[in-house]
Amino acid sequence: MRASWLRMLAIIAVLALAAAACGGGESSTEDTADDTASEAEETDAEEPADEADAEDTEEEPADEPTETEDDAAEGEPTGDNTLVFGTTEQPSTIDPADVYEKLASDILFNTTNRLVEFSAETNEIGPGLAESYDISEDGLTYTFNLREGVVFQDGSEMTSEDVVWSINRSLNIAHPDGASFLIGSITSIEAPDDSTVVITISEPNSTFLARLNYTVATVLPSDSDVYTAPDAKLEAPSDDDAGAETLLDEAESYIVSDQIVGTGPYQMTDYQPGVSMTLERFEDYWGEAPAIDTVRIVFYESTTQMRNALAAGEIDMAVNDLDPTETSSLEGEEGIEILTDAGGRTSYMVVDVTQPPFDDPAVRRAVAATIDRQRIVDEAFEGQASPLFSMIPENFDVSADHISDIEVELSTDSPIEFELWYPADRYTNQAEVAEIISRSLNESGLFNVTTNTSEWATEYSTHLNDGAYPIYLLGWYPDYLDPDDYIEPFYHSEKTFIGFYGSEEMDSLITAEQEAEPGTPERAEIFDEIQQLAATDMPFIPLYSEGQEAYFNERVQGVEDTLGAAQQTWFYVLSLS
């Protein structure tokens, strides 16, 4: 998942004007974003889609989340059927047409539904608001048969009209920070009757159902007073910055930032940005009722505050936010449990293949082969990560290591010099990761690497695609549970959200794997060819992967059911003892 950048650009511009009006003489920089795995930590351009951990090691009071004292008291576990969930992420949006970050996605996964849903029991995509579906022989037409009797949280009945309207809404708003590109292959969506939806896509794609599970395809009430939609796809009036800002303003005019109306197991009943959010069980939910009545999400300014709050019993649970040192410090706390499941979060280096010295594939391969990944895992993460030798993480069977087979073929009279960039305030322990990488490369005698950094929002994210950083660190959360989500967003010349790489051979291989049937030897073989070509061309250098990690007290049950490669946190599968 990626992170939001155009919205930040607008905010920063406003702040700059305010500073000038107050006599400030310093100018503010612009902002763009990844998300990879896109979130506001994270999160995932995907992204995606999307995720930044605070690097705070100072001891701070446990009772200082970003809320008032009265609000904090309300957020403490009461001993009743209320789960208090802590997070350092603060959603930049909660509108399905705009969401592309982890926490906001998780909120929508708990309050809304889509035609298909990921099943915690089967680890596969299955029925959601559609109780069944058929795919045409040519793989282009999907016919969905809707459940009867499903109602929205405003009391209105869900019909095919709502599905058509909602998906068209995301496609027509096409928010620059959102994930409409995931379902951009849709050429038509029709409702022949109240209980049937027919979707046609431009070319066969075995990942299409998985993409429909992402929040961009959330079904909303079409006749609600809350949501509105344009009649046609929004377009920028010009190709310059002014046109982009106009497009952003128009897209933002349709975005709802303070309400959610869905069909999910929980409904949002209170939201105080930066303070807390309350989700209450939706009594008319069409599926199995969740065991927990109320989920209160409390937003913290730092991981240290949140860690202390968990240890003090002020919150019940948190996911992914803590660094290795904080995680280790909880292992001795009585009544606190830590659970980790399969990988899915990945970290990697983006290489500008158009700039020297990285315009030479041999240099890129030498960097990838020389980095000591195990050293990163051991020293920066205390063993709480896994070395990564492919952009596809090891929790997928098709993941293959072709980097270890690389023979370094550099002939140089002096070490190759370059600067490695990393974000100062995003992802876990990035300064340490960058230093370990530079040391391992320098110790080889082939390179002379220095490191540099900048703030994510105000500078780093604005330079992801402009060539300012010839090589830099980035991270990714998955948008949908398929190895394709770790390939197309990076390597496809026309569908990538990041980087400087393009290859007709790679594009053809990606199209072939998307047309192949999932789980077949044919598709696995194509993925192997893709990873071989990726190791030869090396436009991205995989570093390490992390699993989803949950920290919780002993009264929270069922946590294992919400951990996994899908990287989705489902409150509705939990219970309290």
TrEMBL record:
PROSITE patterns xrefs: PROKAR_LIPOPROTEIN (PS51257)
Protein name, per record: Oligopeptide ABC transporter, periplasmic oligopeptide-binding protein OppA
Gene3D superfamilies: Dipeptide-binding Protein, Domain 3, Periplasmic binding protein-like II
Start-end of Polar residues biased regions: 79-93
Recorded family membership: Belongs to the bacterial solute-binding protein 5 family.
UniProt domain Solute-binding protein family: residue ranges: 124-495
Cell location: Cell envelope
Residue stretches of biased makeup (Acidic residues): 28-74
Record-level GO cellular component terms: ATP-binding cassette (ABC) transporter complex; cell envelope; periplasmic space
Record keyword Signal present: yes
GO molecular function, one term: peptide transmembrane transporter activity
Disordered, as annotated region: 24-93
One GO process term, biological-process aspect: peptide transport
Signal sequence extent: 1-18
Keyword annotations of the record: Signal, Transport
